[in-house]
Amino acid sequence: MDNNYNHSSQYNPYPYGYPPSSSPYPPPSNYAPYPPPNSSPYPPYPNPYPPQTPPEPYPHPYPPQTPPEPYPHPYPHPSPPQTPPEYWHPPPQPYSGAPPPYQYPGYGYPPPPQYNQEASHPPPLPHPEAQTNYHHHHQDTGGETPPGPPHTAPVYYPPIDHHLSHLSLSETAPSAPASPPAPAATSAETPSLPSPIYPSVITNESLSSHSFHGHSSSTTFETPLLHSGSLDSSQNFNFNNPPSFINPQNNQQYQMVSFGPSKKALKVLLLHGNLDIWIHEAKNLPNMDMFHKTMGDFFNRFPGTRSKITSDPYVSIAITSAVIGRTYVISNSENPIWKQHFNVPVAHHAAEIHFLVKDSDVVGSQLIGVVAIPVEDLYTGTKIEGFFPLIGTNGKPCKNGAGLGLSIQYFSMANLSFYHNGVGVNPEGVPGTYFPLRRGGRVTLYQDAHVHNGSLPEFRLDEGMHYVHGTCWNDIFEAISKARHLVYITGWSVWHEVRLVRGVGGFPEYTLGELLKMKSQEGVRVLLLVWDDPTSRNILGFKMDGFMATHDEETRHFFKHSSVQVLLVPRMAGKRHSWVKKQEVGTIYTHHQKTVIVDTDAGYGKRRIMAFVGGLDLCDGRYDSPQHPLFRTLSTVHADDFHNPTFTGNLAGCPREPWHDMHSKIDGPAAYDVMTNFEERWLKASKPHGLKKLKTSYDDALLRIERVPELLGVNDQPSQGDQDPKGWHVQIFRSIDSNSVKGFPKDARLAAQKNLVCGKNVMIDMSIHSAYVKAIRSAQHFIYIENQYFIGSSYNWSSYKDLGANNLIPMEIALKIASKIKAQERFAVYIVMPMWPEGVPTGSATQRILFWQNKTMQMMYETIYKALEEVGLEGAFSIQDYLNFFCLGNREAAGPNDNLGDESPSTGNTPQGLSRKSRRFMIYVHSKGMIVDDEYVIIGSANINQRSMEGTRDTEIAMGAYQPHHTWAIKQSSPLGQVYGYRMSLWAEHLGHVDDRFTQPESIDCVRHVRSLSEANWKQFASDQISEMRGHLLKYPVEVDRRGKVKSLPGFENFPDVGGQIVGSFLGIQENLTI
User: Fold this and answer.
1) Nearest CA to 346 among 407, 416, 404?
2) Which of 276, 599, 617, 1057 is catalytic?
3) 722 counts as catalytic
4) Element housing 890 (H / E)
5) Which of 158, 258, 755, 907 is most buried, most CB within 10 Å of its CB?
6) How, if at all, do strands 403-412 and 269-283 pair?
7) Which of 592, 643, 663, 801 is catalytic?
């Protein structure tokens, strides 16, 4: 989100914890002075940046090591103390099914090779009479070999209640015990029954779901999405068998469950790769709608039409506490046929994969039965398919003959060559997404709203080119000014009083509102889509600014009597969602996209579409430059634009909150996809309701470009090909659902045609998550991330596993580093995030976010340490030689021209007074971007948390782009294109100088040098002595021990001046707001 979650005024001062530094961090001795920036209100920096030359090839500094014995999979387990478990399956029920008419795209990853994807149907299942067990079809390229002897006996389904047996929503107790990355589970002796028995089952998939009084204990309430739901412990079931437990003697290797007097075990293995799944059909399901059945039986006694009301089934696919897929709901059927395909990325430790068949109800769902597939049987790449009995909550078949037809196969990362050769190799981009990869065009990358001329160094690129620093808001102002046909703007916040251009000669300093009104008077179609903050209102002259201070009502009022059309769009759930779900979505989720779309000159009397996409809203508080001043511009460029929500009360003389962001301009075919997103959202938001539906004609206000001969279409521009040194390939990604756009199919069975995933009563585009996963898996050298939040992979945390922050991004990064360690290859990850989430750092919501981020960091560090330990390198390397977290901060010495303002806050033990006295404050990192191997960049509005990645929460948009002429595959060395120049420019901004070591970010020399600079900057920032800071990159102020435990710096637990625990805290119930 873009603003504070709370405005608590509690304060806890931060004690100084480092030896004082008498001077700023000294610049390198080999840098000579450079001239001050032109037309800039900022004082020149004391030292310059020299021109950067392309680096020489850099040898990796890894010391020679004796290669360890190879392991059959990433995390080997010790041999079990007992013989491998024997498994048993009942004879499968007859199953026959025709090939499905479409292919479900899942996450859009490459399909496995076992059947023809173009035919869009699954491989035929064996004839029912031939089925006697699992049908194992071995694929040599599928998975990995698990430790221990191979199975020679079929598998018996164990119970699955273990995943909830230790979970709690207590205020003080963690929701799961501290444990290795995967919990334990068990299996049991082969029973004498004709089908497997489950002592207990999990029936809920979402933390955000709630139980209601008066409903069956098997009723559940869930979120309708993939990689986001969690299995909830709020439901209390009465089972006839003892609950699951963790075997303390071997809890890293097995999941144990009590089942009679003896115990068997299932191995917990790491699934890292893709699961290819077909859900075919279910048969003989019980009727769960007993009330409707009773009423139907009564009314069917009377003459007339007779109808049967029965279950509305669907299937959820779960690994541990994370839901990774689900089918659509088939209404009123006891023999549903889905024929739905999933190709899902996984990065989970688990013993089983669960298929939960449920009955969808208006207020939730009821569990019908479960099928469990042991991970160990999948691990070698064996394809398992058949018809499997459904086990109910009592551990017995839910109904005689009830079963589920499915097939599943695992493809490990080692066998997915799609990811092996870098990000820019695949000519199709991220496959299976709503928008395709668009070839040709130009991209401009921006850091901050403005960069003053000469304030950053020049970087030489390949082909004799130089990196050009973009001036984002100047470019947006100019693009709007030159538009002739259309200006479309989306925003979390759009403020009509913001000035895009400040202190730049030759540019008029109109406000945004004045500029847009002028363009609309010229006949340009000006449309604004702005999130409608539910807490802001303007009713009969009574104004409420709103909790988030987005100015939405002010902006609408300003344009009320003009030809500029403004739609304030609330975030809404669908009509078929429960009342609770509607309240949650409308209250805490937002429309978060930030785009500007205009027409621009294409030459020869033609116009084309151009778009801006990124993290910058056109509102107050966003205008900043790489110098990030605190006080010096309060009377100049920030005189009417003071923004700092950390403080309450008297703000006179307080430092402003500096703002760092990433943005982009797309000029080419992909810009049309950004416009399509706007059109789909506009059509949904402007859909007539009530009496407006009676109008015979309805003008939706959108300009139809096919009716304007001057405007080129998406396919009307020639492509320069892959060898154009200035060319880009660009792809647009989104997190959005059918409740926010018009154009997604209403029939869930048609979702595959548009590469959408299926939720409960909603279609979802979650391609941003797919893009991040694909880029991380394809990375070969380093990853650089700047993001406002960093929360995810909670299913692998040591506690709070059921939180529901199940996006794969943190786990994928940790596993990427682990795989490189085992391959004896260098790899480095740099992650920059805010010092604290915007708002009052002592507030409960802010503290929760910090707590979740701490859990995420620790999970990643512990995974890396285990990898070092496995190959015997824990003594040679530190976990921070591979992964580091940073934040940004600034400190200004007082100058004669500073406007110190009211002196009243200068004293007193308040955050305002202390910050003014110490003359320091964090630089707020609002970026949402990632750079991989200096060849691929993702920039957009999406944070790395569940809100942004899920698709049914905040609506987001992002672009992923690379220059095909500047990739590792083409150059066979470090690419020196625009992405390289962009990263080097960001690092120059953050570190205050350039260094040849920065050209090899994966090298251990670079990692340690950057870390040492950031540690020195933190000492300067935290010092009692005030001094001018040259570099802004600070080591995130936590202590990481050698095994990955993340804790407070001893004696220095709180943020300087403003208070709040740096590692965060958690009190109260879990919720969806902060994840």
Assistant:
1) 416
2) 599
3) no
4) strand 883-891
5) 158
6) antiparallel
7) 592
